[in-house]
Protein 1
Amino acid sequence: MKFKALIGTSILAMTVATPAFAQDAPAETERDAFGGEIVVTAQRQSERLQDVPIAVSAFSSEALEAQQIKTPSDLQLTLPNVTFTKTNFTGASFTIRGIGDLCVGTTCDSATAIHLNGDPLFSTRLFETEFFDLERIEVLRGPQGTLFGRNATSGVVNVITAKPKLGLFEAAAEGEYGNYDSIKGKAMVNIPIGDTIALRVAGIYLNRDGYTKNTFLNTRIDDRDLYSVRGSLRWEPTDNTTIDLMGSYFREKDQRTRIQKQLCQRDPTGILGCLNTRLDNSPFNGNSTFTAALTSREFLATQGIPAAFALGSLYGPDVYGNTTIPADPRTVNTAYTPNYFTSELTLQGQIEHDFGPVSLQVSGQYQKVKLDASQDYNSNVGDRSLYAGGLGTLQAAASGALGPALQAYFAPVAAAIIPDGPAGQLCTSLAEESGFGSFGGNKICSDQSLQFDRSNQYNSSWSVESILTSDLDGPFNFLIGGIYADYHLTENSYYVNAFPIDYLTGVLGAFNSFANGLPPSFLGTPFFRNNTGDLKIKSYGIFGETYFEVNDKLKLTLGLRYNNDKKAVVARSTLASFLVPFGQTGTAFDSPFVVTFDADPGTPGNQLEQRRSVKFNEWTGRAVVDYKITDDNLLYASYSRGYKSGGINPPLQPIFEVPESFQPEQVDAFEIGSKNAFGDGALQLNLTAFYYKYKKLQLSKIVARTAVNDNVDADIYGFEIEGMVRPDPDWVINLGFSYLHTKVTEDKFTSNPRDFGGGRSDAVIIKDITNAANCAVAPGTSGNAAGSNAFVNFVNNAINAGIDVNGDGTIGAGDIRPGAGLQGTTSFPADGGIASTGAFSICGVLQSYAAAAGNLFDPNGIQVFTAGIPVNIKGNELPQAPNYKFSAGVQYTAHLGDMTLVPRVDLAYTGESYGSIFNGNVNRIKGYAQVNAQLQLNGADDKWFVKGFIQNIFNANSVTGLYITDQSSGNYTNIFTLEPRRYGIAAGVRF
């Protein structure tokens, strides 16, 4: 028996019957997508849906239209154990069975591999656009590596574009208008060129107003303005040879926001910024930030700088203290208008030749991706009147009131950031590559104190893959493949810009250069920039499977893969790191004083860049046994091992003790399943149960405004039920249910960014006034809260009196000057979820005193935890892993002569999950339901249609994910949501 029809994937097609544009083949119009013989290539062969043992869901183009699956985010509303959310740095996480892109950074591999026509995509913006002119989408759940070129631990999403049809001219066009003044158009034309060549061109355009109202500027933001075009050419020079070429381009430029909202339980002390019990619509405490700390009178006093230059006090009112946060998730107050730009060019080529007993497929692709996005960093408008005293002093110094010697140092600072005087506009550095910012004329000026971030990335990649498959008579067949991929990132930066940063880099730079007899200078860079200037990834894999048909019912599959990954990165992080003379040319790094900057403290000497490289290799594989009870009933059991390479953590500023690199991720996955069809397709029922054992699962958290990754072991198990009921040809009901359990299985101690005291009542959480980082102080004797509090108060008194740091017998330059006015420890609010007390202080000084005199306050000494007191996360659930999901859809086809009227309603419920590995109520993501409906009228032979639709009928503000920001930014929480209610009408024709 020929084996090609047996070595494929068994797929439950969660698809629907009424197409927007039906296919022409009679068999497909008679047997539609629900219960019909949908053909897929999830295992690199064209196969019938219910024949091979892998949990996969497939959506035809007709299904995508009917179920209103317009974007990748919509896929989660139908698929079991699948979630999708945007993430903090312009990325997204497609999570399958609890595993998504929990690793954040340029050197992270994706847990879910995204493929286009079978070829892997790198840093793709494919999911930015809406779907158009597709043949189908296949989502494979579980580790994939012995069939797909790019290894993945959670699964694969394979987007398959519609191919040109030989000898047939056809075209289609569709227009849509909806609320938010949304206009969308899609079109396709298929042109035959002789008998063996055909060209297909398709495109989409979308323009709509913003979902979000900005009450401060009375504007709408979060709009979309994009287009995408795709051209495909197919040539069949012989009956056995097919050549496909494809080129696509996507571009978006608008005011879309990456982050929907910031939530916080406000901390009145300013030591944390936000508390640890719940997420409120409240502003964080601005005194907890880097900018507040370094422009405070407390910090300036320690440097011997007059308090009159301070923009405020850490114990006084903060800039957000009297502001309010709108409760509506789609209403914000911001003085900064976001901008979003992305583009992607993709070129693909594939040749396939059938030699008879074997077939060879060779494919290759090239990608070029650009991304640049910016928005308000704090999503709020602060009270600039609090800055009046400091700004007035700066202007006075620039005007010569403090003497001509200082005037030369402060005049260029005032000219750059307050050119119209202290009551005029405030100028903030643009996020730009030179590193000069406002002091080089690269600035934006406003009546308000602006703060914003920028995330940008430019990368290119190419890959080539070859797959040889057999089609032999007899029980044995095979598949052998190999892939080589080359990825090159030339720019990836994350910037944080704020007027107070310009102020502190100007003022501190002026005093520093004056005190050391240097030319007038500012501190570069006058903004935070974490930059990866170069990243090269070279990867190859060799993979294959063998298939042995024991008899007509029993089959054995064995697969093996070898992975080899090499990564080399050049990176650095800067913020007020070295003096730069005014008038410097080139870049800030051409400064003669850059020699004091060290981008790589782990290597002897001072380096302008951190250079790291890593190599990983691993063997993985899978084994499957499946048994066909009947042609419509299948049982299977499988084991597979998945692998994802490790990477390199970026440099930090200030320096914290974090792993320099993170290890590869590995999973052993066990799965059993049953695929069934009854009553000639009237009932379709697929059942899957799985158990995953993860080693070194990659997780990320924010440290010093930077994503840092670590590893942890975890177990995952669950089950999935997918069903379709068709009581008669005009009714279709589809159902889905999944259960998921995740748990950290190792003793893993790490600090919780929401509670640096680790839940200990005898600890003191410190806000370091020199960098706004948090550390914690704890006694060596458990429960001795009096000792730890007395120790902090003693050290703060010493700081207030001044400390001879350089040991020359006097308190002067280089020492901690007197007059800081630091106060003693204080309690957090009773409902804040923080058991510790807190204080402003200096962590480095606390460390020195703990070593010298800690035993005076506790017989077992005093400990200072520079990154907070670690807590054990063993037993915690993984983030973005809801325990339950449920979906249901019902559709009826009413026949009106040659026309049909098709109403459809879909319901999806996603259960509760956590947005952080630390769990707790403050990190809880509430369950949510989404309901969609549409009514479509199809013309005779489906040559035209008209429909009305509504998405998110109840306008639920469904949160899909959250991210906790850095301690020096206020510890607030960014949330990401699904789209609001959308409704409109659409019409299309086909000829």
Protein 2
Amino acid sequence: MNDFCAVLFDLDGTLADSDAAVARAWAAWSAKRGVDLETIMRVSPGRPGVETIAELGAGLTPAEVLADAEENLRMEEADLDGVSAVPGALDLLASYEDLGVPWAIVTSCPRPLALARIGAARLPRPRVMVTADDVTRGKPDPECYLLAAELLDVEARRCLVVEDAVAGVRAGRSAGMTVAGVRGVPGADLHLTGLPDLTSLAGRCAHRHAVDA
């Protein structure tokens, strides 16, 4: 791998396994609005929920879109059953903390939901976290990743993005960053078999960050 100075992680599906909770929330909206669940699960990954509802909720007024998104969010915040750390996530982040590797979470979740899932998965809370509340345009727009790099004071080209969704891959690459994909997501620059693949990066990343400092 190249010498990166920081690692920017997506949250859901990358660090936290929240698949079941996400599916339950979307299943409820599917039943409410008569939208095909398979289509929802194809369109929604990596994107703010309100954008998915606006796209698929044919005939909904802007007020109804917002109301549905808020209802969906409340359901997700209350449903943390089964949310857990992705294998290798806890050890990887612990090694980054020990070595002083700069890292951040960049998620399409609103901040309260992101914090709830971080807590449920027992992940360490990052010093830098960019959520849907911090940007005007969600993934696949690069705004979120560019903001995370700015907050970490690291050049975009020196950041490695770790993603499991096509929208996130597109966001990272549009930001001029290298993207490592998990779960077989297409379009990534690098393909990981799992988060432990990034363990060897920690020492080089810490050394490079120290040199640049």
Protein 3
Amino acid sequence: MDGTETGWGRPAEPAPRWRALLDRARHGSRAAEEHSDAEGTEAEARRQGPPSPRPSGRPFNPLDPRQSEQARGGHEQRQPPVPERRPVNPLDRRPGRASLGERLGQSEPLGPPPEPRQPEPRQPDSRPLNPLAESRRQSRIGEGFQPRPAAGEEPHSFFNPARNAVPPSIGRVSPDPAPPISRGAASVVSASVLPPPALAPRLPATTAPAPTSPAPARIEWRQARPEQEDRAVATLRRKLGKPRVMAFANPKGGVHKTTATVLAAATIGSVRGRGVLAWDDNELRGTLGLRAGSARHARTIRHLVGELLEIENLHGEGLMSHLDDFLRHASDGSYDVLAGEENPRFAQRLDQSTVRRVMDLLRRTHDVICVDTGNNVESVNWQTVMRSADQLVVTTVPREDAAFTADWMLDVLNETGMEDLVSNAVTLISCPSPGKLPLLDDLAKHFATRTRAVAVVPYDPALEVGSSIEYSVLQPETRQAWMRAAAAMIEPFAE
């Protein structure tokens, strides 16, 4: 073999020729790439200014034709410096740079990068429609339950203000779109006997219910007492310093002396609780014992006077126990009653000494003594009670004859040296009938100039029949008026 043909009989090409072709093909693509890099570098250099010369560090390739020509030309013409080759960034989109497709050998540049994939909206459930479940769902919505939030809607949170600030109204329900019926469910729906459920009616928009507090405790309603009544109660509860005697007087009959005596004792006793007594000192058959207290016995002042000496020598519990045998008690126990004698002949025995002894005995056992006086201002009994009294109460009704008699009695007391008792007296005007009485205001103004105070008590139907007087059956307005009147009587002595 001479080297001109292969071992198989085919002529062989000279070695230098095929090697030169291989080197040319290898370096041809690199030259084109370097040429495009050089053009991009020159465009960028023109935009940024003249670049600073950099020495080329590439080795000399004898197979490169451009380098061969430069080597043959010598230093006849100075070539521009070859820029330094940089790594290719396929994502660099600046002007003058070859695209990624061009660098990879493609004829057309690649398109823009694909956009990020958006999540597809949630399609309604294509499951078969269950009429019973849908009916239960609509009924729950009508009762106030919240439906499930739609896709993409964040549920409301009371603790995160960045979310829905206002919760959706409970009554505002938007019907969901009917899901498409699949082929597999067509036979089920068509064979269903039940009609499609009707949507719940739209309710008016309401706000979310506010949290409620636990049920409060039971509160009983009570009428608030006026301020004047509170002052009157406080006055009646004060200490009086010593036992006090209040005389109810008017020579005219039928002016509510007995009624005033009983109701004054009942009012004061209802506040103080004990130590109050009403005494019928009318020498001409008084009725106080019949209208007040329980008739547990028939003993009167006559029986007490018969054993007065024995009782005066008792003290403490013995005195209280023995005296109680001659007294009657109110139904509620608020006051005691010393009834008068029905026999008119007994009045002769009530002389000045006997009346004073009885008065001193009652002061040992009671704090307030209300005395119902008679009609004879010349009797010793009447005058003795007046001189022993701490408070005079002039009782009258809004009539001219009753007012004239009361005014005359005040003149008699002034003439007998009882000016202090008259000036400190209280005038009590009782209304015998309902409605506005014509003389009421005039009489109140007149007695206000003669006595310390004037009290007016209204008409009450429970007192009209003239039977037993029960303080608890009076109307609230009547009890309040008597409370103020009794406070006016006690006020000068209250400590």
